[in-house]
Every structure is written in structure tokens, then in C-alpha cells.
């Protein structure tokens, strides 16, 4: 894990300055940028006519993102309704108290190692962290408010958080935070980022310490052996269930259009009834579903995991044969297997579009169908990623397990040869 894991940037807008009007633009920016994870099955597109602001203004920087896909990625406290970004933006543009902007960010490899790869995990981190941050900033918890948005940016996942107080007699009037307060805000979010990892390590430490204490009384070698058995058991479990996935690649607007169109075209040739399974489809449907799966697997973000999966298949096969043609055949079969798993998700998406097109509600017009196709395209994209990552992480564990078993066999042979020489 990198040395500087968590980065927390803090800025503020003081009331009475021109910058306060930028709060509306900032809220729109964090809520509707393409990387903003909406967590919303009813996502739609925001058109340019909704946001007529010149590019040479501060708001123009926001327009770059806001005119692209999506419903709002904004979220707030879990027990409260999802806030509308327009309402929040208008309110903060005229707010009479300071407004703080916080960015909590991680490198992608660190986020993946910590399991922070989706909106749900980040939302829990931010909600718990912001409650501590509010105390560190000496704000009144009863009057403090916040909204946030998770941006699933490749290489740099991060959350934007906006914090403010409602007017009350003891409200904080100065936006500038003292050094101790800034450190308190950093600690508040860093503590939550590492919470699951800290709990996991503490549990493992307790189990291993207790086990070693009991066993080492009699046999240190046996304790070391048990440690290896625990590690091997963990690997064996991961060969069955997989491990933490990497962060889902962002579905860019042009990719969304292409995938939605492909799914609609597949839906047109799908049977209207029967089991939705690749094995039972006629050849034309199979071929088109596989073509779409191929397209997904070689998109940016997917292609690295696809190549890694094929390479792992070769590594695993190399424990049984070193023939180049056999290794290539193993990679081909592995790819075809994961492609068909993705094709199955593609079929489900096309079937959903098919059902929607035959629904009475879809007859309102083509825009409704296109919107539903875009929503389903996002679902297929996510399902395809889960299928690929599940197989890749299982293969990673299997390759490591075989390598460790091979190492154990080699060490055993070396010990036997040493005894024979003695």
C-alpha cells in the first residue's frame, strides 16, 4: 500500500464573497459528473439546455461534467431522502454561513486493497467520517448539514463532501479552520477508511496469537505448520468464491450509447418466451450475445483484467504441461468460458429490454425505450465486470495455491535428497 494512502483536501467559501454563488455550480459538478456513481437504476441524461452557463466562468468548469450523463450522484445521511442537487445548490448559493468543501481520495490500488470500490462502501465511510469531522470543526451536530458524491474516477477514486450549518445563535461564522481542526477532519475520514481493514487485522491477530500460544508450548514447528495450513485454507476458499474485485471501469457516454444500441438489436431477435440461457438460444442469438460480450471484455478497464485472466490460465496450465500450444489452448478456453458468462448477462439485459418494449408503458414513445435501454446497459456493464472479476480473482488464488504447493513439494524433495546424502 502506498505511503500516503488517504488524501483529505479542505476548502471553504466565506459568506459575503462572490464565490458563494459558485456553490450551485459545485453541487451540480459533484452530482452529475460522468464519474459520479449514481447508485440509481433510473439514471437519465442531463441536456445542455438545463445548464446554460458560459465556459469562461468558474461554472464553465463544472459544465464540462454536468452536461454529460446522468441523474444525481448526490447522497446524504442514510435515514434522510436523497437530496435534489438543484435544491441544495440554490440554497447554498444564497447561504449566510461558511460552506466547506472536502475531498477524500485514494489511489485506485489502495482503494481496491481496502475494498472501497463501490458507492455503498464509500457512503458508509463518508457518513461515519463526516459525523466525526463535524465535531472536529466545532459545528453544532443538530444544525450541521452535508451532502456528498462518490466519483469512480479511474486511478483516483474520491468523494466530494460539502458541509454547512443552518442558521442558529451559536453558528460558526468563520470558515477558516485552525491546524488542529484540519487534522481532526483528516483523522475523522482516515479512521473510517481503515475501519474494516483494522478490524480484520485485529481479528486475525487475535486468532493467530491464541493459536500460537497454545501450540508453541509443545511444538514450534507445528505452530509454523498450522500457520501455513491457515494460509492455504484461505487460498482454497478464494479459488471457490473469488476475492475483492477491482474498481468498476466508468461507462463513458459513447460506450453507453453503443452498448444500449447493441442490446436493443439483440432484443429484436430474442425469443419472446422461454428460459433465458445461452445454451438454449439459437445460433444467431448466441453469436450476437457473444459478439457483445467480446466488445465489453476488450473495453478500456475490462481489457487489463481479461488479459490477466488469460495469462493466469497459462500459469495454471504450466503446472501440468509446458507445450506452447497447450498453454495457448488453456488461455483460449478460459477466455471463452468468461466470455460466455458475460454473454449470459448480456442475454438477461436484452430480455429485459424485450419485456419493456412489449409493456404498455413503453408506448409513450421512443425516448422512454432509449432511457430504459441506457439504464439496462449500466446494469449489464456492472454484471459483466462482476463476472470477469470473480473468475479472475479465483484464478489468481488458484495460481498462487498451485505455486505454493509446488514450492512445498520442492522443499520436501530437497530435504529427502539431503537425508540421502547424509
UniProtKB/TrEMBL annotation:
<dbReference type="InterPro" id="IPR041073">
    <property type="entry name" value="MobL"/>
</dbReference>
<keyword id="KW-0175">Coiled coil</keyword>
<dbReference type="InterPro" id="IPR048102">
    <property type="entry name" value="MobP3"/>
</dbReference>
<dbReference type="Pfam" id="PF18555">
    <property type="entry name" value="MobL"/>
</dbReference>
<protein>
    <submittedName>
        <fullName>Uncharacterized protein</fullName>
    </submittedName>
</protein>
<feature type="coiled-coil region">
    <location>
        <begin position="390"/>
        <end position="421"/>
    </location>
</feature>
